[in-house]
Write a structure and sequence with these properties.
2 strands; mainly alpha; about 160 residues; Arc Repressor Mutant, subunit A
Length: about 160
């Protein structure tokens, strides 16, 4: 890795966790609808992937299946998530947001966006454009990497390696 790649990688590695931690702290301070960050991220994932499986969400959030099951049980008990047996495969459980879940997620998301907008106000228009451009450049790289890793995992599972 040459110096520019190393500097870029180091900046990402040092900055992204700080951003995520600041979002966590803000959500805890605001007690956004009594959602923890993992619950918020779970609702966000399900909102983007209605009908997803418990395994899909667990992998995205980074929790074990038993831990994710407990988290989902709590969201189901709160009336935020609907857990149903798949119409296609009765062994599979699908997850979707209830109307209440969708409303809670949207309010929490809007509150977080408003907070982030306030944080970014001191930046110039050019600086904000730079951030947007950086995010536009990074997103497809990381999406492609996630797809690659998922494909690799599926191949390993199917071959038993």
């Amino acid at each position: 890795m040459d110096a520019s790649n190393q500097t870029c990688a180091q900046a990402i590695l040092e900055t992204v966790p700080v951003i995520i931690q600041a979002i966590r702290v803000e959500m805890r301070l605001e007690r956004m609808h009594d959602l923890s960050v993992p619950q918020f991220r779970t609702l966000a994932y399900i909102a983007r992937h209605p009908g997803c499986s418990l395994s899909d969400v667990a992998e995205f959030i980074g929790l074990t299946l038993p831990s994710m099951s407990v988290l989902i049980n709590g969201l189901v008990e709160q009336g935020l998530v609907l857990r149903q047996t798949s119409l296609i495969d009765r062994r599979r459980v699908t997850l979707t947001l209830t109307e209440a879940g969708s409303e809670v997620y949207q309010r929490a998301r809007q509150g977080t966006l408003a907070w982030l907008q306030r944080l970014l106000e001191p930046l110039s228009e050019e600086e904000r454009q730079t951030i947007v451009r950086a995010m536009e450049l990074l997103k497809p790289i990381f999406v492609a990497e996630m797809i690659h890793q998922k494909s690799k995992q599926l191949v390993e599972e199917s071959t038993g390696t």
